[in-house]
C-alpha cells in the first residue's frame, strides 16, 4: 500500500495564489480542506445521460477519472483553492493559470479541475482545453464531484437556476499539495 506523504502547506503562498486568482477575474476564492469536497456516483449520470459529449473527448467520462478514483486522488491532498465566478470559461482559465503558478512555485502536485456544467459547446469552453492535451483538465462534475454540496460545505450559496433572474455560479478547483 502506498503511503500518502504530505508536505507542510505554506498558507502564505496559498493566500498569494488565491489573491492572484481574484486579480485574474474570480469573484471569490477560498482555501479549503479537501475533506469538504464531496464525490458521489450519481454525479457522473448527469454526464452519461444529459450530455452529447459523453465519451467523445479527454475531459469527459468515461475518459476522466470516476468518483472513486477522484476520492482516492483527493487523499493525496489536504488543501485546495475553490474559485467562484459568473463565467465558466473564465473560471476554468483562472484555475489553469493558478495551477501553473502553483506548480512553478514548487507545488509539483498542483492540479486544476474546470467549471461546468459539462454541456460543452464552442462558446462554453476555451478551445485550447479540448485541442491541447497539456491544457486539458476534467470538469469537476466529470470526475464525480458534487459541486453544489462542495460549494455549500465551504460557505457559498448556490441554487438551481429555476429562473432566468437567478445569477449563475461557476466553480473550479485547484488541488495543491
Tell me what you see in this structure.
- The protein has 177 residues and is an alpha+beta fold.
- The chain has one domain (11-158, 168-176).
- The chain is 34% helix and 13% strand.
- It has helices spanning 11-23, 41-50, 67-74, 88-104, 127-131, 147-153, and strands spanning 28-33, 79-85, 111-113, 170-176.
- It has a 4-stranded antiparallel beta sheet with strand order 1-2-4-3, covered by helices on one side.
- Helix 1 runs antiparallel to helix 4 (88-104).
- The two termini are 20 Å apart.
- Mean pLDDT is 86; it is low at 120-126.
**Percent range for β-strand residues:** 5-15%
* Secondary structure: helix percent: 25-40%
| C-alpha end-to-end distance | 20 Å
How many domains is the backbone divided into? 1
- Placed side by side, the strands forming the largest sheet appear as 1-2-4-3
Query: What is the structural class?
Result: alpha+beta
Radius of gyration: 15 Å
H/E series, N to C?
Answer: HEHHEHEHHE
The general outline is globular
Q: How many H/I helices?
A: 6
The number of strands is 4
Low-confidence stretches: 120-126
Average pLDDT reading:
86
Major sheet size, sense and barrel closure: 4 strands, antiparallel
Amino acid at each position: 500500500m502506498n503511503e500518502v506523504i504530505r508536505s507542510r502547506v505554506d498558507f502564505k503562498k496559498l493566500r498569494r495564489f488565491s489573491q492572484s486568482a481574484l486579480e485574474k477575474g474570480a469573484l471569490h476564492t477560498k482555501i479549503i480542506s479537501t475533506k469538504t469536497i464531496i464525490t458521489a456516483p450519481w454525479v457522473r449520470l448527469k454526464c452519461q445521460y444529459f450530455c452529447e459529449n459523453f465519451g467523445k473527448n479527454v475531459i469527459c467520462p468515461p475518459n476522466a477519472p470516476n468518483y472513486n478514483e477522484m476520492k482516492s486522488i483527493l487523499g493525496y491532498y489536504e488543501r485546495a483553492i475553490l474559485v467562484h465566478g459568473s463565467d465558466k470559461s473564465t473560471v476554468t482559465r483562472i484555475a489553469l493559470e493558478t495551477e501553473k503558478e502553483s506548480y512553478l512555485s514548487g507545488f509539483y502536485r498542483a492540479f486544476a479541475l474546470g467549471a461546468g456544467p459539462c454541456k460543452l459547446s464552442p462558446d462554453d469552453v476555451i478551445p485550447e482545453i479540448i485541442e491541447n492535451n497539456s491544457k486539458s483538465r476534467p470538469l469537476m462534475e466529470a470526475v464525480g464531484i458534487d459541486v453544489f454540496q462542495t460549494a455549500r460545505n465551504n460557505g457559498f450559496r448556490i441554487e438551481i437556476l429555476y429562473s432566468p433572474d437567478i445569477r449563475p455560479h461557476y466553480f473550479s478547483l485547484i488541488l495543491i499539495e
